[in-house]
Amino acid sequence: MSSILEVKNLCFSYDPNNKDGKYAVHDVSFSVEKGDIIGIIGHTGSGKSTLVQHLNGLLKPTSGEVLLNGKNIWDEPKKIKDVRFKVGLVFQYPEYQLFEETVFEDISFGPKNMGLSGEELTARVNEICEVVGIKKEYYEKSPFDLSGGEKRRVAIAGVMAMRPEVLILDEPIAGLDPKGRRDTVSMIKQYRKAYGATVIIISHNMEDMALLADKLLVMNKGSIEMFDTVYNVFSKYDRLKEIGLAVPAAAEVLRRINEKNSSIRTDIFTTKAAAEYLCAYAAGEKGA
Amino acid sequence: MSDKQIEIKNVTFSYGDGEEKRNVLENFSLDIERGSFTVILGHNGSGKSTVAKLMNGLYKPSGESGKVLVDGIDTRGSEHEIEIRRKVGMVFQNPDNQLVASVVEEDVAFGPENLGLKREEIRARVDEALKAVGMFEFRKSTPHHLSGGQKQRVAIAGVIVMRPECLILDEPTAMLDPKGRAEVMDIITRFNRENGMTVVLITHFMEEAEPADRVLLLNDGEIISDGKPKEIFSDIETLKKAGLDVPQTTELLFELKQNGMDIDTDAISVEETAARITAALHLEEK
Asked: Could you tell me what percent of chain A has a pLDDT over 90?
């Protein structure tokens, strides 16, 4: 299978001369298959945000390369704008960047930049709003009259409207209430399903990562600590704790029970799966 | 002397003017007991942050009616502004916006310097505050080079160095990684338990309500529920109405109960949750 995105030996220093030899990202290599959802976790300052800003050419590697569909994105620096349409990046707190007078205009901003206009532009906005469930009655509202969660989703829809093959979101659910969190997560899933897109999400929310991601990339002090399935990553409990991370609450509870009784499994990471397992366990005990 | 740290009495607060005017709070009342630990939960736009900013006089009640008293002092009078800010310290979501100096200890000294205290007094207070948040060894560091949790601890030191009676925190852990969140929650809880500091914590993380004496649910500017953490999280209907969830741990217990297990669902912490399940499964030590 061919990778949609490949990062090879990427190093980045905020100081272009790199006098002190310190790197924000150091010798990072990984590849992402088309259609995967990759979660990136890591302590604050571990280099997560710096890394993803390389994937759409916002930052240029000090050394190493980023390949999109097998092609180095910096081969033709003048065409870097095209890369930014193919790899959409949603920043932290994207709602602070809403500035147009209406929701419709805000969502149109990206596709307009790509050169769409008139009916084509309207069709594009209509389509993305339908996919992610933004109702037409919102079109003429001012983004500033929306709730925090709604603003966030409009801002994300603005990036999705460019229909990127790879959608990257930096802390898309931070600061949202539980309903806002659910709505935003389901919006991301809908986008991926509709377009077969590849999704990369940075988050500190281990529960949502367990539910959403196919694989987790763990960053620690600028380097990759692990890049593996959700199962394998969350199984490394002690190491995750050491580097400032955690496992989902359900797994933490199972570990405590396991300390009392070692026949209890600890390798279950979502609340629902843990409940099913414990009920099955109870039934099994009764039967025995 | 009253045992009320903060009294909000029949306050209305609105943003904007004329046609744009919107009431966030209407005839809102709330008392905060001295030495208590209160958590305020509510969806985005429920009025939580407005309530917090009213509590230290950053916002004043709109119109003529209603008042906010801090230790009996009306926040409306500008002559008491400094006294009120000193009694009630406030910590915000993003530590990067709260740190101003290029060295940690200078940042923490910023407030006391403005009070015109003697050098030795400032030195003593800064050291004490940094020790209290476990950042003393970083006193010569640049805030920029610290982790998110460390930065937020420095921001908290910069507030407690003023020796406030009450600490208000508006989503202080929203941007932190799990370790940073645990560090900050640990410090807040300690200030309350050991120093008797009044704490008001606003958060979207339901599990952070666990150490509180009292949890308030805010919905569209109204308190729709007020009780102990376990009472609040056993009323799922009201939580759902407010757009909120139960903590993951409590949810696990509810799922088990729904699946027919005979189990108590009134636990929030990981330890308690594990203990409930161990009991329900009649697990022996193995």
From this structure: 81
**Of B254, B252, B221, B212, whose CA–CA distance to B237 is shortest?**
B254
Do B175 and B268 fall within a single domain?
no
Do B186 and B51 have their domain in common? yes
3-state SS, one letter per residue, for A22-91? CCCEEEEEEEEECCCEEEEEECCCCCHHHHHHHHCCCCCCCEEEEEECCEECCCCHHHHHHHHHHEEEEC
Would you say B138 and B105 are in contact if contact means Cβ atoms under 8 Å apart?
no
Above 60 in pLDDT, residue A288? no
Q: Closest CB to B180: pick one of A44, A250, A272.
A: A44
Residue-level pLDDT at A267: 93
| Distance from the B240 Cα atom to the nearest Cα atom in chain A, whole angstroms | 9
Contact criterion met (CB < 8 Å) for B243 and A263: no
- Whether ipTM tops 0.90, in short, is no
Q: Note whether B175 contacts A274, CB cutoff 8 Å.
A: no
Q: What is the pTM of this model?
A: 0.88
Sign of CA dihedral A42, A46, A49, A55: negative
Interface contact A285, partner B, CB < 8 A: yes
pLDDT confidence bin for A287, thresholds 50/70/90:
low
What's the pLDDT tens digit per position in B105-155?
Answer: 999 999 899 888 899 999 999 999 999 898 999 999 998 888 888 888 999
Residues A104, A187 within the same domain: yes
State the total domains in chain B: 2
In B30-69, the residues whose Cβ lies within 8 Å of chain A are: 42-45
Mutate one of A181, A209, A256, A268 to test the B interface: name it (highest B CB count within 10 A). A256
Question: Do residues B263 and B133 both lie within one domain?
Answer: no
Same domain, B85 and B135: yes
User: Which residues in chain B show pLDDT less than 50?
Assistant: 1
Q: Same domain, yes or no, for A257 and A136?
A: no
Give the pLDDT score at A130: 95
**Domain range enclosing B174:** 34-56+78-229
User: By C-alpha distance, which of B194, B188, B191, B190 is closest to B172?
Assistant: B188
Report which of A180, A183, A144, A147 is spatially closest to residue B204, judged by C-alpha positions.
Answer: A180
Interface test with A, best of B96, B150, B154, B204 (most A CBs within 10 A): B204
DSSP assignment of B150-187: HHHHHHHHHHHTT--SEEEEESTTTT--HHHHHHHHHH
B-chain residues within 8 Å CB-CB of A262?
A: 286
On whether residue B281 sits in a domain, the answer given is yes
Q: What's the CA gap between A99 and A109, in Å, rounded?
A: 10
Inform me whether the C-beta atom of residue B184 falls under 8 Å from chain A C-beta atoms.
Answer: no
Residue A223's φ and ψ, nearest 5 degrees, are -120, 165
| pLDDT confidence of residue B37 | 98
